[in-house]
C-alpha cells in the first residue's frame, strides 16, 4: 500500500509540473504578444491629443520619465466619483517620488472644472474624447468601461490595468514597488 501512495504522489507531481510548464509557456506567449500590442497602444496614448481645462494642448509626453497613473473617467460615473479621494491621497503621498497621476475625463471642460473644484482634485486633468476610449480598449479595456486606470513605470511600460473604481491600497500595491525599484533603499 505505501508503494501505491508514493507512485501516486510522484505521478501527481509530474502531472503538476507538466501543467505548470505548459501554463508558463502559454503565459509567455500571451505576455510577448501583449507587450507588442502594449507598445503600439502606449505609442497611441503618448500621441493622444489632449487639452487642459483652459483648452491648452497638454500631451502626456509632458510626464514621460515619471511613474504615471493614467485614470480615464467621467463626471457622471459613480465609481469614478468614489475613487477620486483615493487618487488625490495617492498623488499627495507619492508626489516627491516621481509619481504623477493624470486624469483623462471623457466629458466637457466646464463639467470637469466644477467636478474638480468639488472634489478638490490637485493632479492634472486633460480632456479626453472618444479616441481616448478607443485607446483604453487597446490597453486592455475590452468593455470600454469607466473608470479605467493604467499604471506605467518610468520607462513607459504598463505595470497594471484596472477597470472600475480603484482604491488607495490597490494603487499602493502597484506604485510602492515601482518607487522602490527606481530608488532602492540605501542607493
Amino acid at each position: 500500500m505505501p508503494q501505491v501512495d508514493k507512485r501516486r504522489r510522484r505521478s501527481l507531481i509530474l502531472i503538476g509540473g507538466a501543467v505548470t510548464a505548459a501554463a508558463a509557456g502559454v503565459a509567455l506567449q500571451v505576455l510577448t504578444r501583449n507587450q507588442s500590442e502594449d507598445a503600439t497602444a502606449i505609442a497611441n496614448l503618448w500621441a493622444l491629443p489632449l487639452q487642459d481645462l483652459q483648452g491648452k494642448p497638454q500631451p502626456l509626453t509632458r510626464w514621460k520619465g515619471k511613474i504615471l497613473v493614467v485614470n480615464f473617467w467621467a463626471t457622471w460615473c459613480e465609481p469614478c466619483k468614489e475613487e477620486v479621494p483615493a487618487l488625490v491621497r495617492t498623488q499627495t503621498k507619492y508626489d516627491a517620488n516621481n509619481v504623477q497621476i493624470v486624469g483623462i475625463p471623457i466629458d466637457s471642460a466646464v463639467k470637469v472644472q466644477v467636478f474638480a473644484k468639488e472634489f478638490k482634485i490637485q493632479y492634472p486633468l486633460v480632456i479626453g474624447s472618444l479616441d481616448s476610449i478607443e485607446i483604453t480598449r487597446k490597453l486592455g479595456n475590452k468593455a470600454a468601461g469607466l473608470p479605467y486606470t493604467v499604471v506605467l513605470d518610468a520607462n513607459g511600460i504598463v505595470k497594471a490595468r484596472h477597470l472600475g473604481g480603484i482604491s488607495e491600497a490597490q494603487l499602493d500595491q502597484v506604485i510602492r514597488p515601482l518607487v522602490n525599484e527606481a530608488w532602492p533603499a540605501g542607493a
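Residues 17-33 have pLDDT under 50 and may be disordered. Strands lie at 67-73, 99-105, 148-152, 158-163.
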